[in-house]
């Protein structure tokens, strides 16, 4: 109970720091959990990359033959 009491006092005395720590905790926790979940949903069929010549032609506006 002593730790919880100290934590309560800290939140009351420094609410901005406590909120920042909470936000940082989410920022560290979410990528560690969400990224593997998203990777598991990734489709097994990968879309092939376009040829580099098509990319260059699209960026420059010139058709290469």
From TrEMBL:
<feature type="transmembrane region" description="Helical">
    <location>
        <begin position="16"/>
        <end position="38"/>
    </location>
</feature>
<feature type="region of interest" description="Disordered">
    <location>
        <begin position="46"/>
        <end position="65"/>
    </location>
</feature>
<keyword id="KW-0472">Membrane</keyword>
<keyword id="KW-0812">Transmembrane</keyword>
<protein>
    <submittedName>
        <fullName>Fiber protein Fb11</fullName>
    </submittedName>
</protein>
<keyword id="KW-1133">Transmembrane helix</keyword>
<dbReference type="InterPro" id="IPR059243">
    <property type="entry name" value="At2g46540-like"/>
</dbReference>
């Amino acid at each position: 109970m002593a730790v919880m009491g100290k934590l309560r006092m800290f939140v009351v005395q420094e609410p901005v720091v406590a909120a920042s720590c909470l936000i940082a905790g989410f920022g560290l926790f979410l990528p560690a959990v969400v990224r593997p979940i998203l990777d598991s949903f990734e489709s097994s069929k990968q879309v092939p990359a376009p040829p580099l010549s098509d990319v260059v032609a699209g960026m420059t506006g010139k058709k290469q033959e």
